[in-house]
Amino acid sequence: MIKKFSPIDSLKINSVKYKNYIAVETDNKKYSYKEFWIAIRFIASMLLKIKKKPLVVIIGEKGFLTYASMFGVLLAGGTYVPISINTPLKRICKIISLLKSNMIICPDKYKFYLKKKFYKANIFSEKNISLKKKVGISFNKIQISRLAYIIFTSGSTGTPKGVCISREALNHYTKWLTKKLKMKPGKKCSQFSEIGFDLSVADIFGTFYSGATLIPAISKYANIFPGRFIKEKKITHLVCVPSLIDVMNNAKDLKKNNLKSLEKIFFCGEPLLKSQVSSLFKAKKTLEIFNAYGPTEATVSCTYKKLFF
Fold first, then answer.
1. What is the pLDDT of residues 163-205, one digit of tens each?
2. Strand, coil or helix: what is 23?
3. What is the sign, positive or negative, of the torsion defined by CA atoms of 161, 166, 171, 176?
């Protein structure tokens, strides 16, 4: 039995309660929770016209359309498979073949190539998806798959390995994370991880569950100078791998002025070094740092240690 008040339930509530709050902020546009929910409903209805409990491959970058596609699949009762747009096409095709999925959401530039490769598949791109059109369909009685998503790791042999995460596991992890990080409306969370890396689950679901704003680091500037990105976007919650702190140090970006808005950091994916922690507390003593660990199978992480000055 899937527990009630899932990330989708929370997002639906947020679309009404915080409808004018910003859900996603990119370099050149802001999208409210109301706009986000409209796009999610449209995508869900589009998928349900083809199949119940759809298995959908989502090829995309960090951004509004990708997030709306993920939640659209979940609302439709299906399972999504996130693949970063930076993944080589050969590997993308291998994953699609392994899944035997006939539903793909991708950028316009990939549609023609994938249609030739998988001619029987239903392939949607940006041109097929309306971000404003309201739909009247009811989602209360749809069939719901047990799995929320399947994420592919490299595998020890180099062959793609799909890790299946249930909706119940995702619900439990999202609630735990939101409570620990104290995310809420008005807070701003970064996203540095690509959607094919399981750490992205923490910032994406943690943000939208709580009604906060998700700000993906898309530009080269943001990734080369993350400290300045944090300052300019007034990031309050940073989710990343520890090596991002080395990037800040190398760019001479780890300064008190750049971290003024920052309250909490959630690390996972790599060992956190003493030197990195020392550098952070030297720049800002009031930071709360969460050092988490866990395999992909554990829904991002299963242990953590809170560090403070």
1. 999 999 999 999 999 999 999 999 999 999 999 999 999 999 9
2. strand
3. negative
How many angstroms separate the Cα of 242 from the Cα of each of 58, 176, 199, 275?
27, 21, 12, 11
On the question of pLDDT at 254 being above 70, the answer is: yes
Q: Cα(284)–Cα(259) distance, rounded to whole angstroms?
A: 7
Q: In this model, does residue 1 exceed pLDDT 70?
A: no
Helix (H/G/I), strand (E/B), else coil: 57: strand
User: Which strands make up the sheet holding 147-153, listed edge to edge?
Assistant: 122-124, 103-105, 55-60, 79-84, 147-153, 161-166
- How many other C-beta atoms are found inside a 10 Å radius of the C-beta of residue 202? 28
The answer, as to whether pTM is greater than 0.70, is yes
pLDDT of residue 199: 96
H-state helical runs in 33-166: 33-48, 64-75, 89-99, 108-117
Q: Going by C-beta distance under 8 Å and a sequence separation of 6 or more, which residues neighbour residue 259?
A: 227, 230, 231, 283, 284, 287
What does the alpha-carbon distance between residue 211 and residue 188 come to, in Å, rounded to a whole number? 10
Whose structure tokens read 């735990």?
A: 176
Q: What are phi and psi of 300, to 5 degrees?
A: 80, -65
State the average pLDDT over residues 28-55. 93
Percent helix / strand / coil, the chain, rounded to 5? 40, 20, 40
Strand partners, 60: 84
- Name the β-bridge partners of 153: 161
The DSSP code for 2 is: P
